[in-house]
Design a protein that fits this description.
Strand content: 15-25%
Structural class: alpha+beta
Number of helices: 10
Helix content: 25-40%
Number of strands: 21
Radius of gyration: 41 Å
Distance between the termini: 121 Å
Largest sheet: 7 strands, mixed
Shape: globular
Length: 449
């Protein structure tokens, strides 16, 4: 057994030595073995070479974007040298900026949702704030804000999806909000309508014209304004004192308690009254008491105060309301006077029309006008049928020319308006009355919905 073991060991050694001596291509094939995966080698992250940005120097891409935006802003400003107006179409979710009645820019907007609708009608910019934040919605940023109502409606920077999404404001993309904020001023007219409306040129023989006679010519030349105020109020005091010392009738007493005359009464001189100086009114009041002289003293004093107080700068706005049967005039957001007006076919709707005086024509008396007419929004008039039952008038509203033709304005009011006319003046004719938003620090706000 020992010899056999030794023999086998020797044979194995001999075979191993022979195998190692064979050429590589004649070696016996071994069963293929799966190759082990090489160890994971950590690869370094690719190196990103970023431009060095010294203090005060932007990268090329940002610098190019800023330069492009500046170029666009300068181009818009150069196109907006005329009389500006803004028209917003709710259905299209679009704002159009006009200069002298010509479109110079369009922008997407996002107006109010059905639960918080944006009001429609005639407005104007009454306040601007570059860094405004909401006092109604958690201090939310509303930068480049341009307010159109004191109750909270404004145009401002915000998120602008392709649908209504605000609480009633008009959101603008940031770039356009910045550009428009930089070129508009207080008083710029803003019209918000359901459908897109556009300004069109209009001429009419009865549209307001310029009266070259200065307003100061209507003053009394013999006394200064201060003297006239003092004398007129003195006349009023004397007359009322005399009334207290005399027996007056009940009718006279009621006249003494009359409220101050309407603004139109003291802003316009009646052609039936003989001009009188303040000293004559004082002497007459001393000589005898007469209720008519008291009223005259009131009118003289009020007229003097109106002359002493300077008018605010800016063009006038005139509003004619079928609902109220009056004409109202404002200047610099301040009311000046009002006057009654009448209408032909008063039962037919007028519609809402905004006339704007763009410039003076070559004759230096007439103006170049355009008009924006808003469909709908007319309040339905009522009339009695043969049986006495009231029925609504069902007819289309007038176009701009017909609407103006139907308005009958007193001549003295026309004269006063002509004295105040200038480029930028506007006339609004509407079935609606003064909107509840019209007040201190506003132009006329007329709501059509």
């Amino acid at each position: 057994m020992t010899a056999s073991t030794a023999l086998l060991a020797g044979l194995a050694t001999s075979l191993a030595t022979s195998a190692n001596a064979l050429p590589f291509n004649l070696q016996p094939q071994a069963a293929p073995q799966p190759m082990a995966a090489p160890p994971e080698v950590a690869r370094p992250a690719p190196t990103v070479v970023r431009p060095v940005k010294p203090n005060g120097v932007t990268t090329a891409s940002r610098d190019k974007s800023a330069a492009k935006e500046k170029e666009v802003a300068e181009d818009l400003a150069s196109k907006s040298k005329g009389l500006l107006s803004v028209i917003i179409a709710i259905d299209k979710q679009q704002l159009t900026l006009y200069s002298d009645g010509k479109p110079v820019a369009h922008s997407r907007v996002s107006t109010g949702t059905p639960g918080h609708p944006t009001p429609m009608g005639v407005f104007s910019i009454i306040q601007k704030d570059r860094w405004h934040r909401s006092n109604l919605y958690g201090d939310a940023p509303m930068f480049f804000m341009q307010r159109i109502t004191w109750s909270g409606v404004a145009m401002h920077q915000g998120i602008v999806p392709n649908q209504p999404a605000s609480h009633g404001c008009i959101r603008l993309p940031e770039a356009f909000a910045r550009q428009m904020w930089g070129i508009t001023k207080l008083g710029v007219r803003v019209i918000i309508a359901r459908n897109e409306v556009t300004p069109v040129a209009i001429s009419h023989a009865r549209l307001f014209t310029l009266k070259l006679e200065p307003l100061e010519a209507k003053g009394e030349p013999d006394v200064t304004s201060a003297e006239m105020v003092k004398a007129a109020y003195g006349a009023l005091d004397v007359a009322q004192f005399a009334a207290a010392k005399r027996d007056v009738t009940a009718s006279d007493a009621s006249k003494l308690r009359d409220p101050a005359l309407d603004a139109i009464a003291y802003a316009l001189k009646s052609p039936r009254e003989t001009p009188a100086t303040s000293s004559e009114v004082v002497r007459s009041a001393y000589d005898t008491f007469d209720a008519s002289k008291v009223r005259r003293a009131k009118s003289l004093a009020s007229n003097a105060v109106a002359e002493v107080r300077p008018l605010k700068p800016g063009p006038i706005s005139v509003f004619i309301s079928r609902k109220e049967g009056k004409l109202f005039v404002r200047k610099g957001f301040d009311p000046l006077f009002n006057a009654p007006v009448t209408f032909e076919r008063p039962d037919k709707p007028l519609g809402t029309h905004v006339f704007t005086a763009l410039s003076v024509t070559d004759d230096n008396t007439t103006m170049r006008w355009n008009v924006v007419s808003m469909s709908g929004g007319g309040s339905a008039a009522t009339k009695k049928s043969e049986k006495g039952v009231k029925a609504e008038y069902a007819g289309p509203a007038s176009n701009a020319t017909e609407a103006f033709d139907r308005v009958i304005i007193p001549q003295d009011a026309l004269d006063r308006i002509s004295e105040l006319m200038s480029p930028g003046a506007s006339l609004i004719i509407s079935d609606q009355g003064l909107g509840p938003e019209t007040g201190a620090g506003t132009d006329f706000i007329v709501l059509t919905r």
